[in-house]
Design brief:
The complex is a heterodimer of chains A (268) and B (169). With 268 residues, chain A is of the alpha/beta class. Chain A is built from 7 helices and 8 strands; from the N terminus they run E-H-E-E-H-E-H-E-E-E-H-E-H-H-H. In chain B, helix 1 packs antiparallel against helix 5 and helix 2 crosses helix 5. Classes of the chains: A alpha/beta (268), B alpha/beta (169).
């Protein structure tokens, strides 16, 4: 099992140390390049403050203030024909800038355009729910709460969606270990048998490839099986593998090819 | 005219077979292992294929039941998540004894490739397992072989004695 390394400051560290390496950037274009997007951006700018806007990979990205998200999405749905919220979630930037980036991916079937509304919130802040505008936001916002702990104000059922209700921690945070913290490691044992059962059941065996051929409690060497708990020396006699016991089984006749009849005539 | 004529004079002259209670009860038990439908993931598809006409589990007397109260063996086919762990324990407790558990596939055996926070690392952390089937996913032949081994195990036990209570702890 690999040792767990804390990932609290992993975003601050350089992950690549080549001095001459220039990380590739997806080129950004001005919104004026696209007539449809420029018109949409004008409509947004007329209503709320826009922090930044550009086109990347053919999609417009608009940065807004977090308190304006409901207004902007309502405008896009009712005035600009962006009738679908195809995806929404958050990105964990806690280590880098102390908060989350939340994005709303919108689709207009009439205009054949996709645009993305982005906003930045600080740690511990809640966002306005857009569930009243788009039904798809119902589960997406619950998932965002489940995975990041960001609550949506005005959501009708703000509960976890994937993890159990009594789960502790938010698994998609970058500080959350992949194999779980202590709560996650003992969750099912604690819940079913109680904390006192931890010593009996033991910790999780995380190395699934680990095989100890001298361990007769958990492993059996195929063809050389011994009773559970026997000390294995390595030169166990070979056991014959068969489906049935020696001498046959009560009331069950073994198939004998000699006694069988092959019917050649299918009509008989 | 009857096509199959019964010869009452063979085998010592009487249509009677002498045996012990143990053997006849074990014969009944081992040839009617009703399985609980427990398809949790892709292994469940292989389990269904074993039950369908090509592999035909019915000829072993293995009929899938949708209720734990009618089932003898629980075939845990697939990934067990931590959210689901309490329910597998509840269903196992609802099964009437004697009962057996087959852990089918890598995920049920050890957690398999899901070495994550949300997966139970082997169902034997929750319920006692009689038979582990390797594979990802095991072929229907593997499951059939597993059921035949389970039949062998049932026949080797004393039916007249109460099944030794299988408790994890």
């Amino acid at each position: 099992m690999r040792a767990y390394k804390p990932k609290d400051d992993v975003q601050k560290k350089a992950y690549y140390t080549d001095r001459f390496y220039v990380s590739p950037q997806v080129p950004k274009f001005s919104v004026e390049d696209d007539e449809v997007f420029a018109h949409d951006l004008e409509a947004i700018k007329a209503k709320v403050e826009v922090l930044d806007a550009y086109i990347q990979v053919g999609q417009m990205v608009v940065f807004i203030k977090p308190e304006d998200n409901y207004k902007v999405l309502e405008l896009l749905r009712d005035r600009c024909e962006y009738t679908q919220l195809s995806e929404m979630s958050a990105i964990d930037w806690l280590a880098k800038s102390g908060g989350f980036e939340i994005f709303y991916q919108m689709l207009s079937m009439n205009k054949r355009k996709r645009l993305r509304i982005k906003m930045f919130i600080n740690k511990g802040e809640a966002v306005n729910s857009v569930e009243k505008l788009f039904r798809s936001a119902d589960w997406s916002e619950r998932e965002m709460f489940d995975m990041f702990g960001i609550e949506a104000n005005g959501h009708p059922f703000m509960k976890r969606i994937l993890m159990p209700y009594d789960w502790q921690g938010h698994p998609l945070l970058k500080t959350y270990p992949l194999q779980g913290d202590e709560f996650a490691a003992w969750y099912e044992v604690d819940k079913i048998y109680g904390k006192e059962a931890r010593d009996i059941i033991g910790p999780e065996l995380r190395d699934t490839a680990k095989v100890d051929r001298y361990d007769s409690e958990r492993f059996a060497r195929l063809g050389h099986e011994v009773p559970k708990g026997t000390k294995i020396t390595g030169n166990e006699p070979k056991n014959e593998q068969n489906y049935q016991e020696e001498g046959g089984v009560f009331m069950i006749k073994k198939f004998d090819k000699k006694d069988s009849v092959v019917i050649d005539d299918p009509q008989r | 005219m009857a096509q199959h004529k019964i010869n009452y004079t063979q085998n010592g002259g009487l249509p009677v077979a002498l045996t012990s209670i143990d053997k006849i009860v074990n014969w009944g038990r081992s040839n009617s292992i009703w399985a609980l439908t427990y398809g949790l993931a892709c292994c469940g598809i292989e389990m269904m294929a074993s039950g369908a006409s090509r592999y035909d589990f019915d000829r072993f007397g293995t009929i899938f039941r949708a209720s734990p109260r009618q089932a003898d063996v629980m075939i845990v086919a697939g990934t067990l998540t931590k959210k689901h762990a309490e329910f597998i324990k509840r269903l196992y407790d609802q099964m009437t004894e004697p009962k057996w558990v087959i852990s089918m596939g890598s995920c049920a055996n050890t957690g398999g490739m899901f070495n994550t926070y949300a997966t139970v690392q082997g169902v034997d952390r929750i319920i006692p397992v009689d038979l582990y089937l390797p594979g990802c996913a095991p072929r229907p032949e593997t499951l059939q072989y597993g059921v035949m081994l389970l039949q062998k195990k049932i026949r080797a036990n004393h039916a007249s004695r109460a099944q030794k209570a299988k408790r994890l702890m």
